[in-house]
């Protein structure tokens, strides 16, 4: 009996540590949901230069009650063959600022509403562009289905509002206005009902 007792104590300590680790792991931030699409259009004097990424990731931060969207700038591809492939990367200074950040107010009552028809409400969005954050009120349509929250929005920003600069080679082609379109991006929750 005395020989078995010392073996039991380390096993109990190990089980206690595993249980504690699992409870901490479950309390971490929500996981990102990937494969969301965003279209960014850079306005020119006579035409729009449109770029799309299908690699926007989204998660809901319960502490701040915001949807956090991250767009890798390098994944923005032109929607037209005549647009330079690296134009968006260069205009958004992707080498120095590799990600574009959007944080959209999304209170828990919207997320857990179970609303199957889109509800468009004005929300505050924080946009991180070229190292500068700026806030604006924009309309966002929210829909919940099963354990997913879908959202859509269209808005425009002026690069001047971010003290953002344009590369010299694009100055004749761009006005400094950028339009953003997100259509039915989704965040999947493991505990949404």
UniProtKB/TrEMBL annotation:
Signal peptide, first to last residue? 1-25
Reading the lineage from the top rank, the first entry is Bacteria
Which keywords has UniProt assigned to this entry? Signal
Protein name (database record):
YceI family protein
């Amino acid at each position: 009996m005395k020989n078995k007792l010392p073996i039991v104590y380390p096993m109990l300590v190990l089980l206690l540590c595993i249980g504690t680790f699992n409870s901490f792991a479950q309390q971490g931030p929500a996981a990102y949901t990937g494969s969301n699409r965003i279209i960014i259009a850079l306005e020119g004097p006579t035409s729009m230069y449109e770029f799309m990424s299908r690699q926007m990731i989204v998660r809901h931060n319960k502490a701040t009650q915001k949807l956090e969207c991250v767009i890798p700038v390098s994944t923005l591809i032109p929607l037209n063959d005549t647009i330079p492939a690296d134009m968006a990367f260069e205009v958004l200074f992707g080498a120095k600022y590799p990600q574009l950040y959007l944080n959209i107010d999304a209170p828990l009552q919207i997320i857990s509403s179970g609303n199957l028809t889109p509800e468009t409400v004005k929300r505050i969005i924080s946009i991180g562009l070229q190292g500068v954050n700026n806030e604006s009120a924009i309309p966002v349509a929210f829909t919940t289905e099963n354990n997913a929250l879908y959202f859509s929005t269209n808005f425009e920003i002026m690069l001047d509002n971010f003290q953002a600069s344009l590369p010299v080679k694009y100055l004749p082609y761009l006005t400094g206005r950028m339009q953003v379109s997100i259509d039915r991006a989704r965040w999947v929750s493991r505990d949404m009902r």
